[in-house]
Amino acid sequence: MQLADKVALVTGGGQGIGRGIVERYLEEGANVVVAQRSRLDAELEERPDVAHVPVDLSDSAALADVVDRAAEVFGALDILVNNAGLMAEHHISELPLKDWQRMEAVNVTAPLFLSQAVVAHLRKRGGGSIINIGSVEGMLTNPAHAAYAASKAAVHGMTRAMAIDLGPVGIRCNAIAPGWITSDLSEKYLDSKENPVEARSALRDLHPVGRLGQPTDVGDLAVYLGGDHSGFLSGEVIVLDGGRTIRLPTPD
C-alpha cells in the first residue's frame, strides 16, 4: 500500500490513462478526487474513496477553486496528477486559432495554474508530488500535430522549471511521457484500418517489449512518482513507451 493515507487529485481520471492512474492509486490505498466535466461511471461513483469535482479545465478562472474544493473532500491533498488533455489534428496551414487556444488552455494553462493552486495544500502536508502527463510527442511528433506537440513540449519544460521552484518547499515535480497507450480512441483507429489484425501486429512489432501500453502501465509509474520511494526524483520527464522511440528503423 504505497499510497496509504495519501489524497490525490487526478484531472480527467474517469477514462483512458487517467482511469488507469485512478485504479492503481485506489489499489495502493489512496483517496482520489477526480476533476473533469463529465460524471463518473457507477463503478467509481459508488466508491467511498473516490469523489468527483466537476470542472471545465479550459476555464482558467475555475482552476484555483477546483483545487480548494478537492482538498475539502478528504481534508487534504498530497498528490496532483495533471492528466487531462486534448488533441485536435490540423495541418499547420489549416490550424484554427480557436483549436490552438483551447488545446493550450487544457494541456498547458490548466496544469500550470492547478499546480500553483495546490502548493499551499501540499505545504500543509510537509510537501508532496506533482505529476504532469506529457507525451513522446513533446520530443518526436506526427503529421498534423503541431499544436499538440507544442503543448506537450511546454508541459515537459514547465515540469523542470516547477521542480526548481518548488523543491525548496518539499514538492517534487515530474512528468510521464507515454507512447502508444491502448484506449477506446486508439482501438477505434486500428479498427478503421483495412486489416485491423495486421495493423495491430505491425504496431506491436514497433515496440521492443512486444506489446502495446495499457493505462495501468502509466498508473504503475504514477504510483511510484506519487509515493515516498521516489523522494530523490524530481524534474524528470520519463518516457514510457515500451522502447518504441529508441528503435531505429531498419532498411527493407
UniProtKB/TrEMBL annotation:
Residues 6-183 form the Ketoreductase domain. InterPro entries: KR_dom, NAD(P)-bd_dom_sf, Sc_DH/Rdtase_CS, SDR_fam. NCBIfam families: PRK07231.1. Belongs to the short-chain dehydrogenases/reductases (SDR) family. It comes from Rothia koreensis. Pfam families: adh_short_C2. This is Glucose 1-dehydrogenase. Keywords: Oxidoreductase. Its EC number is 1.1.1.47. GO terms for molecular function: glucose 1-dehydrogenase [NAD(P)+] activity.
